[in-house]
Amino acid sequence: NDTAITEHKRGRRTFITKLPRFIRRFIVSIMMQNPWMKKELLGTVGLSSIGMFAGGGGTSIPVTPHNMTLIVGGIERKPWVVGDEIKIRQVLTGCFSMDHDVIDGGPAARFINIVRTRMRTCYGLELPKS
Q1: What span, in angstroms and rounded, lies between the C-alpha atoms of 116 and 122?
Q2: How far is residue 77's CA from residue 64's CA, in Å, rounded to a whole number?
Q3: What is the C-alpha to C-alpha distance for residues 48 and 70, in angstroms, rounded to an integer?
Q4: pLDDT tens sequence across 8-51
Q5: Long-range contact pairs involving 76-83 (C-beta distance under 8 Å, separation at least 24)
Q6: What residues contact 96, with CB distance under 8 A and at least 6 apart?
Q7: 3-state secondary structure (DSSP) of residue 27
Q8: Which residue of 38, 62, 105, 112 shows the fewest CB atoms closer than 10 Å?
């Protein structure tokens, strides 16, 4: 029964939150050493949008326990090459961070190239009707 399992998990969470801080930290450090438990608690991909809070462009370098993290930076007006001309464009910055123990560099680079291409072509967005 799913309800019984949920109640059991909720009971464990309540018990852990009542423990002293040093014991909670010890338990969490043990749990984070198990990759399956780490995935269950944190997921596999982290996403943060620092650009929401910082004015202009720029991004940060993520240091997270996730296998992959994407930090979306701000939008900034920059000179950009369009065809053979340099034009002012709004540019979105971002940073991918990947755990190379889990993700190989080749597939990671291909994935980032796909994301970059789709963002540049506004993949999935409809053009406004005139």
Answers
A1: 10
A2: 29
A3: 6
A4: 666 666 777 788 899 888 988 888 788 788 788 788 888 888 77
A5: none
A6: 68, 69, 70, 108, 112
A7: helix
A8: 105
